[in-house]
Amino acid sequence: MTRKRIYEIAKEFGITSKELIGKLAEMGMPGLKAANSVDEEEYGLITNLYQEETAPQSDTIAKEIESVSAGKTEETEEVDHRPSRPPIVSVLGHIDHGKTTLLDAIRHSHVTSKEVGGITQGVAAYQANLGAQTITFIDTPGHKAFTGMRARGAKATDIAILVVAADDGIMEQTVEAIDHIHAAGIPMIVAINKIDKPNADIDRVMNDLTKHGLTPEVWGGDTITVSISALKGENIDELLEMILLVAEMENLRGDPTGTLEAVIIESHLAKGRGPVATAIVKNGTLREKDVIVAGSTWGRVRAMTDDTGSRLYEAGPGRAVEILGLQDVPHVGTTIEVMKSQNAAKTAATKQKEQEAAPRRSRAKMSVEDLFREAMEGEKLRLVLKASSTGALEAAKREIEGIGVEGIKVEFVHTGVGPISEGDVLLASSIDEECVVVGFGVKADPKSSKLAERDRVVILTYDIIYDLLGEIEHALKSMLAPEYEETRIGEVEVREVFKIPDGVVAGCYVTSGKVERKAKVHVLRDAVEVFTGEILSLHRFTEDVREVQSGRECGVRIKDFNDIQPGDHLAIFTLKEIER
Ligand code: GDP
Fold first, then answer.
1. How far, in Å, is the centroid of ligand 1 from the Cα of 194?
2. Band of residue 26 on the pLDDT scale cut at 50, 70, 90
3. Judging by beta carbons within 10 Å of its beta carbon (0-12, 13-18, 19+), is residue 11 exposed, middle or buried?
4. What number does the ligand 1 atom closest to the CA of 101 have?
5. Does the CB atom of residue 197 touch ligand 1 within 6 A?
6. Homologous superfamily of 88-250
7. Which is nearest to 340 in space by CA: 282, 298, 280?
8. Secondary-structure class of domain 4-75 per CATH
9. pTM for this structure?
10. What is the pLDDT of residue 197?
């Protein structure tokens, strides 16, 4: 027997892959993934186990098992009762590696057209069926579209397919796509395409994948790969099965009766039809006649069509639909909200429009240090780094990594050779954290600059490595919490304590140095520090003063401390920030 995959075995015994993986972990085989395979002996063990479990049990064993599984359900966190929904899939990869051919192949083999005349190509997504299950494919391939949809905050895609041509291997845009998928934080499946070609070299692709941190699961890693020929329609079913498998692992759910979560994935103005938009529903149901807001535009859903050209009256989770009825063409990546009335929708859209039009603080006027500071959230500086050549890129990367300011890390969201592109800007704006785009020896083209302005992405370009390193190092250092040095300026003895309506005043004698109104104080009782804080007020007789010299008496109040006692000593000090 050849090796069997976990998900196949799970299917065989009528359980979920997740359950089986859990069971195997208990049996001493941890860390398996649904796409991993087991050998004959291991398969035998699993078979024994499940045959035993389904065999009639003696009372005691049955009870034992019952109690174990009862304990388990208690452990599991809140159960999501929403039904599972179709996964939403995007296809990415280098130009000419077969993204469009793959999408067409799936469309032609797995979409059942209900209309005479066949499939409408207008809708920007379609639903493929495999058995009783459905997968929603976004029909605009490429990482620019993928990240463009994400740049406005909407997360349309659940799973990414990375297409790599087996005769060409990993190319520049493949690497870009990998980084874009990583930044999206979603799972990916690698489709090794064009295996029908005589010069196809699957092993080389797998080897290249490993170099990019994607070790194929057939080589012991956890990257799922499927070898296909999009042109010949080979192994397409296997690819779809893998998608469904990953979807099962991701536990994608949507409630048709819940709040609507839908994303615009394409929009245009159509002659005679007005603004047309394709939306994907992730949760809830979108219905004809619903009054909706999509960013700065609104409307009443006049008609909805699915990818097969059928009119739809409602679209539930996982559905992609073309919508007519919006007042204006909405931005790709905006989410749709259902409103109670046209007035409410109009108001919300107008408000959004005004916000978009309002002048924003131009980042061009901020200091580089502030820009970097904004980019550093969670003690991490995120960068997209582009350079003029592989050598320059490697050098810049190495030098930046070598800056080493303690406690702070630099994360390269993406690095590449060539001018700063729209894709780079979209990538920087799509991630939830701030991210700066840095060019070393390269500039941004006008389109990218314009996009950066719109999405408030910072682009910084350098020609000299020391300028680049200096500014990053300075920014990193300025990010650290400041360190202070304490300077002792005086000693005070507390002689009497007076109660006043809102606290106490310590009647003191300055034994050495001085007391300053703005100084800090340690309160010492029997040489033990009982409090450290700030002076709230300082006065001589009835007058507020700025400082009192040694040999004099004064009244001191300490902020947030009323437990001062006669005999306490006050050590007065100031703080000075020290440069790191
Ligand atoms: P895209 O730029 O990634 O969308 O690539 P396309 O789908 O346009 O494909 C580029 C070229 O590769 C076209 O000429 C396709 O016919 C060809 N192609 C795509 N998939 C395969 C395949 O599986 N085998 C072969 N031999 N050619 C393919």
1. 7
2. confident
3. middle
4. 7
5. yes
6. P-loop containing nucleotide triphosphate hydrolases (3.40.50.300)
7. 298
8. mainly alpha
9. 0.69
10. 96
CA atoms within a 13 Å half-sphere pointing along the CA-CB vector of 387: 17
Which CATH number does the domain 261-357 belong to among 3.40.50.300, 2.40.30.10, 3.90.550.10, 2.160.10.10? 2.40.30.10
229 within ligand 1 shell (Cβ under 6 A): yes
Predicted confidence (pLDDT) per residue in 448-475, tens digit? 999 888 888 888 899 988 888 888 787 7
One-letter amino acid for residue 282 of the chain: K
pLDDT tens for each residue of 129-153: 888 899 999 988 888 888 888 877 6
Residue 196 Cβ inside 6 Å of ligand 1? The answer reads yes
What size, in residues, is the chain?
580
| 276-277-278 Cα angle (round to 5) | 135
Protein residue whose Cα sits closest to atom 17 of ligand 1: 98
Say yes or no: CB of residue 230 within 6 Å of ligand 1: yes
Cα-Cα end-to-end distance for the chain:
65
DSSP string, 136-177: EEES--SHHHHHHHHHTT----SEEEEEEETTT-S-HHHHHH
- On the question of a common fold for 261-357 and 368-478, the answer reads no
Query: HSE (CB half, 13 Å, CA atoms) of 401?
Result: 10
CA of 120 to the centre of ligand 1 (A): 22
Mean pLDDT of the residues in the chain: 85
* Closest ligand 1 atom, residue 94 Cα: 3
